[in-house]
Write a structure and sequence with these properties.
This protein has 215 residues and is mainly beta. The chain has one helix and 14 strands, in the order βαβββββββββββββ. β5 and β6 form a beta hairpin.
C-alpha cells in the first residue's frame, strides 16, 4: 500500500458581535433613516434557478440544539422525500451531531455522528453501526467501495481507521499526530473531512493546528 499523506488545513473562526436590543421607537427611527443605505440599488426582483427544485440533494444541519433530534433530509423535485433522525443525546447522555453524510449507490446513507458512525437503509434500518470509544469522537466517515468505510477517530491518540463493514475487521489503523496529543480537551477540535482519493492519499482537515501542514 502506498504511503498515506495527510493534509491538515486550518479552520478560521469567525466571531459575530451580539446585537444591542433597541426600543421600538429607536428601531423605527433607525429603520427609516437607513432604509436607502441597507437596500441595494441593483437588487434583483427574483433569483435564478428553481430554488429547492434546482437539484436533488442530501442535507443535514450540524448541532441543532433547538430540537431534541438531529435530522438528515433527502430533497428531490423541490420536496423532502426522506428523513432520518437520531436523538440529540445518546443513551449515555453524550451529544450526537451529524457531520459527514453520503448517499450510497444502493440508496443507503452513511454518516458520522460524533459518538460514532452508521449506515441506514431507505426503510430506516441501521444496517451498520460503530460506537466511538469513551473520550473519542468521529466527525468524518467516507465510503470506500461497497464494503468498507474510512473514518477518523479523534482522541488521544487520534486514529485513522479503515474498516470492513461486513466482517468488522480493521484493515488499516494509522495514528496521526496532533497539536496536543495528551490533552483530552483537544479531542473535539482535531480532525474533520478526512478523505481518501484514488491514489490512496488522504487529505484531511485538522482545525486545532491553526496552519496548513503535511505529515
Amino acid at each position: 500500500m502506498k504511503a498515506l499523506q495527510i493534509a491538515l488545513l486550518a479552520f478560521t473562526a469567525i466571531q459575530l458581535a451580539t446585537p444591542v436590543p433597541l426600543s421600538p421607537s429607536t428601531s423605527t427611527s433607525l429603520s427609516s433613516q437607513n432604509s436607502e443605505k441597507t437596500t441595494p440599488k441593483n437588487e434583483p426582483t427574483s433569483l435564478p434557478g428553481k430554488g429547492l427544485a434546482q437539484h436533488p440533494f442530501l442535507y443535514t444541519g450540524e448541532w441543532d440544539t433547538r430540537k431534541p433530534v438531529q435530522t438528515i433530509f433527502l430533497v428531490r423535485g423541490g420536496k423532502v422525500v426522506w428523513t432520518y433522525s437520531i436523538p440529540i443525546k445518546n443513551e449515555k447522555g453524550d451529544l450526537n451531531e451529524f457531520d459527514d453524510i453520503h448517499l450510497l449507490s444502493n440508496g443507503h446513507v452513511l454518516f458520522a455522528r460524533k459518538t460514532g458512525a452508521g449506515e441506514v437503509s431507505p426503510d430506516k434500518k441501521l444496517v451498520w453501526n460503530y460506537d466511538a470509544p469513551k473520550e473519542t469522537e468521529v466527525h468524518s466517515a467516507q465510503p470506500v467501495g461497497k464494503d468498507k468505510v474510512l473514518f477518523m477517530q479523534n482522541g488521544t491518540p487520534a486514529k485513522l481507521i479503515l474498516m470492513n463493514k461486513r466482517s468488522g475487521k480493521v484493515e488499516l489503523e494509522h495514528v496521526l499526530p496532533t497539536a496536543r496529543p495528551d490533552d483530552p480537551k483537544s479531542v473535539h477540535g482535531q480532525f474533520r473531512h478526512v478523505r481518501m482519493n484514488q491514489s490512496w492519499n488522504l487529505p484531511g482537515r485538522a482545525p486545532e493546528h491553526g496552519q496548513g501542514r503535511r505529515v
